[in-house]
Design a protein that fits this description.
five-stranded parallel beta sheet, DHH_sf, 3 domains, DHHA1_dom, exonuclease, 14 strands, alpha/beta, nuclease
């Protein structure tokens, strides 16, 4: 079935890579350390396990060429599959040939590639909206063995983590969803579990004044005559409509754009074989990756039930911390003419903080940039909105050029990108980024 969905050249190149994998007894996997990357890793490791191929997983934290090369060379002899990263890092491993890259990010092609680089953008597919890392991992696993279709939940968790579900799936993601989804669907609010906790711990959407404030949530629900302890899936149509309208009005108090409003509702799938909803699965994978426990969901979904409790507890730990950071960053944010920026206390939190502010707490007229001061460098995360993208914003270009001018490196998507610069170079970066954004954005 997957052969009928994919472009012939794409299918043939993936099949060639799969043949390379089938001939191995041991494969190393390098996956980006976010929700999309973890979802991708779960797919690939389960596919390798089914073929009795031994494996070792490492997560990619540093995307600069030198850091990536160091990670690659920790175990440079076996065949390595690099997923949700790799194309932009080829210059760092240009003299190696024993790798397969499955990527979807913007990159600048280079000559002399000796390994296999499969980037979905090279096949006319939009890697920001139509395919992500888990898309690449899933189609690879299906070409490897069509019976890997049961890994569909992790394809969708990666798509959702990468925000490619906003406004509905499109392109290759939609084609795969239509062909391989066998689960029941319910259109619900983008919340999970009992309403009281669901709204209190909701970070995406983020409800200013309600998120992180259970007393306010209780009063809010009482005003709507909806039970605080009711499960989101048990709401009747009238309750669902009433709550959706009230939450939309709550978001509109912050003058946010249509992107944020649109994310109030979505399709929820129940994965009977996993005993989680699609929303819960995303929270598990994303939450654990944000607190540095990327391996726990991988272990669990490879069959290690002993980590279940710790894995689930990490979700509330992550959300409690993130909620505090979002409120703090929002109150301390610096307004520039063409962008907003803040400092985050942890590098893993800068992206989610920037995303929450851009989508749910500010007018959608400027991108939001988060800095984090590490021991050796400054890590940067940037987030925009689809409205800004429609006006010309390309954060991948902004991060690539501005980070380079500040002595670092960067890249990513048009709507979300990251980078690294030396300490004390933030002003240079801000000035460069502002000029680029000014040149990109078309007036309304």
């Amino acid at each position: 079935m997957i052969e009928e969905i994919l472009d012939k050249k794409l299918y043939d190149n993936i099949n060639k890579a799969c043949e390379k994998v089938r001939g191995e007894s041991y494969v190393r996997v390098l996956a980006h350390n976010d929700g999309d990357g973890v979802s991708s890793a779960i797919i690939l490791l389960n596919a390798l396990k089914k073929l009795n191929i031994k494996f070792h997983l490492s997560f990619v934290k540093s995307l600069d060429n030198e850091g990536f090369r160091q990670l690659f060379e920790e175990e440079k002899d076996p065949l390595t599959i690099i997923v949700d990263a790799g194309s932009s890092q080829i210059p760092g491993i240009i003299d190696y040939d024993n790798y397969i890259i499955l990527d979807h990010h913007f990159y600048n092609p280079v000559d002399g590639i000796r390994g296999i680089n499969i980037n979905i953008r090279d096949y006319g597919v939009n890697g920001t909206r139509e395919a992500c890392g888990s898309t690449m991992a899933y189609i690879f696993s299906l070409v490897l063995d069509e019976s890997n279709r049961n890994l569909f939940p992790f394809f969708l968790s990666g798509v959702t983590s990468d925000k490619q579900d906003i406004g509905g799936l499109s392109g290759l993601n939609k084609s795969i969803y239509d062909a391989y989804n066998t689960y029941s669907i319910k259109h619900t609010l983008n919340l999970e579990g009992n309403l009281g906790d669901a709204i209190t711990y909701s970070v995406d959407p983020f409800f200013n004044g309600l998120t992180g404030n259970p007393d306010a949530v209780r009063g809010f629900l009482q005003s709507l005559n909806i039970n605080f302890d009711k499960n989101i899936l048990d709401l009747n149509d009238d309750e669902n409509k009433t709550l959706a309208n009230a939450l939309a009005l709550k978001l509109l108090e912050n003058n946010i754009g249509s992107d944020g409003i649109r994310y109030i509702e979505g399709d929820t799938l129940y994965y009977s074989d996993l005993n989680f909803t699609s929303k819960e699965l995303v929270s598990i994978i994303d939450g654990n990756s944000r607190v540095g426990e990327n391996s726990l969901p991988v272990q669990y979904f490879l069959g290690d039930n002993s980590v279940r409790l710790e894995m689930l507890n990490n979700i509330k730990i992550y959300k409690t911390k993130l909620i505090d950071y979002i409120y703090r960053a929002n109150s301390e944010i610096t307004e520039e003419k063409y962008l907003r920026y803040f400092y985050a206390p942890e590098s893993e939190m800068a992206g989610p903080i920037a995303g929450a502010i851009a989508l749910y707490l500010m007018r959608p007229d400027k991108p939001v940039i988060g800095f984090n001061s590490g021991n050796d460098d400054i890590k940067i995360s940037s987030r925009g909105t689809r409205a800004l993208i429609a006006r010309g914003l390309n954060l991948s270009e902004v991060m690539s050029i501005a980070c380079k001018k500040a002595g670092g490196s960067g890249g990513g998507h048009d709507i979300a990108a990251g980078g690294v610069i030396p300490p004390g170079r933030e002003k240079i970066f801000i000035e460069a980024a502002s000029e680029i954004i000014k040149s990109q954005i078309h007036p309304l």
